[in-house]
């Protein structure tokens, strides 16, 4: 008489293996940093900082709108969409009446 496991007895061990793999994969994803943080992209670092400063110094009527653009831009950076984020930051700068620093045009030329 051989001692084979029935399919019901094999299920818990198979489930444990799948669950452990899923937990390991989830931990791997959670431990990685967003792409913009790894690359040091100007659009999500320097331009974001410049837009946030400009939003703070904008007039009362323009401040909330500029801050909304900055907030949206930061969320886009977190999602890894630097190009769309830069558009949001530039819109915030335009609303605040501030010219973008020349560093971005030099970075874009590369």
From TrEMBL:
This is Tetratricopeptide repeat protein. It comes from Sphingopyxis jiangsuensis. Keywords: Signal. Residues 1-37 form the signal peptide.
């Amino acid at each position: 008489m051989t001692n084979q496991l029935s399919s019901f007895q094999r299920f818990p061990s198979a489930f444990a293996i799948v669950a452990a793999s899923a937990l390991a994969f989830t931990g791997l994803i959670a431990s990685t940093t967003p792409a913009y943080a790894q690359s040091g992209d100007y659009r999500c670092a320097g331009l974001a900082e410049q837009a946030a400063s400009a939003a703070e110094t904008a007039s009362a009527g323009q401040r909330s709108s500029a801050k909304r653009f900055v907030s949206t831009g930061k969320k886009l950076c977190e999602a890894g969409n630097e190009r769309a984020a830069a558009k949001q930051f530039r819109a915030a700068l335009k609303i605040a009446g501030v010219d973008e620093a020349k560093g971005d045009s030099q970075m874009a030329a590369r």
